[in-house]
Amino acid sequence: MSTERAPVRQCATCPVRERGAPMCWRALQAQIALLREHGVARRLAPGEILYRQGDSAQGWWLVGRGQVLEYVVDLAGREQIVRLAPAGSVCGMSGLGARAVHWATARAGRRGADVCFVPRQHGQRLAEQDPAILYALLTGMAEEVRLAYNRLHGLSMLPARSAIAQVLLSATECTAEGESVITLSRSEIASMVGLATETVVRVLGEFRTEGLIADHGRNRIALCDPCGLHAIAEGLDSK
Questions:
Q1: The dihedral of CA 11, 17, 23, 24: what is its sign?
Q2: Where are the domains of the chain?
Q3: HTH crp-type domain: which residues (predicted)?
Q4: Which strands sit side by side in the sheet containing 180-182, from one edge to the other?
Q5: In whole angstroms, what is the distance from residue 109 CA to residue 119 CA?
């Protein structure tokens, strides 16, 4: 008897329709995988630093499993998470430019991450030889710019419920069991949306009561109804 899970039917526009990620990198992975064959693989332990803000950027990294958090640190030592790089995406994109430095620090998420380093010059030669690789990188960067605009809009304009729903969707990882989970702390979510931690705790409590999420221990949230969260993120919330 087959134990394969039946596919979950979701709306065509749901951002978690394939991997629980905010964008569909799957269409790009077949092209970006060509770069992995020429890179240097590395396994990161949970929370391990990949590079630091101000370090010289000699290339870029491809995320194969888990996720990488990029954050900036101000003069007072406070951290602001600015991006989550899910599996299939590029991080350390400062390395795409000449003589660049990393503008943020990057560390592996709480489940660790598998990454692959592609030196700048080697990656440039591969992109010149195969336009599909260059197109994949440009498309991925364009999507990152779009998401960055959405995050800026969310911080300044969206209600707390919508902003937090967007972060939950963007931070989702897909486990080997097919479960969509978030491994951010309440304070990290608050940092990403620019809200007080108490507000995040209250909204997450509402989501839990409404059956949208479930708590699975410390710093681990499961998405029970990603399409419901998507509706809230898009402003289709009656509350």
A1: negative
A2: 26-153, 159-233
A3: 158-227
A4: 173-174, 180-182, 221-223, 213-215
A5: 23
Strand partners, 59: 119
Domain 26-153, CATH among 3.40.1190.10, 2.40.30.20, 3.30.413.10, 2.60.120.10: 2.60.120.10
DSSP string, 141-199: HHHHHHHHHHHHHHHHTS-HHHHHHHHHHHT-EE-TTS-EEE---HHHHHHHHT--HHH
Q: How far apart are CA 98 and CA 88, in angstroms?
A: 24
Question: If we measure between CA atoms, which residue out of 166, 142, 130 comes closest to residue 89?
Answer: 142
Rounded to whole angstroms, the Cα distance separating 14 from 22 reads 9
Q: Quote the tokens at residue 89.
A: 């995406």
pTM greater than 0.70: no
Q: What is the DSSP string of 219-239?
A: T-EEES-HHHHHHHHTT----
Listed in order, strand segments (DSSP E) in 87-153 are 90-91, 100-101, 105-119
Model confidence over 179-223: pLDDT tens digits?
A: 778 888 888 888 878 788 999 999 999 999 999 999 887 778 888
CATH T-level fold of 159-233: Arc Repressor Mutant, subunit A (1.10.10)
Q: How far is CA 83 from CA 34, 72, 80, 151, in A?
A: 24, 10, 9, 9
Residue 180: closest CA among 106, 47, 86, 69: 86
Using CA atoms, how far apart are residues 107 and 45, in angstroms rounded to an integer?
Answer: 9
Asked whether residue 12 carries a pLDDT value surpassing 80, the answer given is no
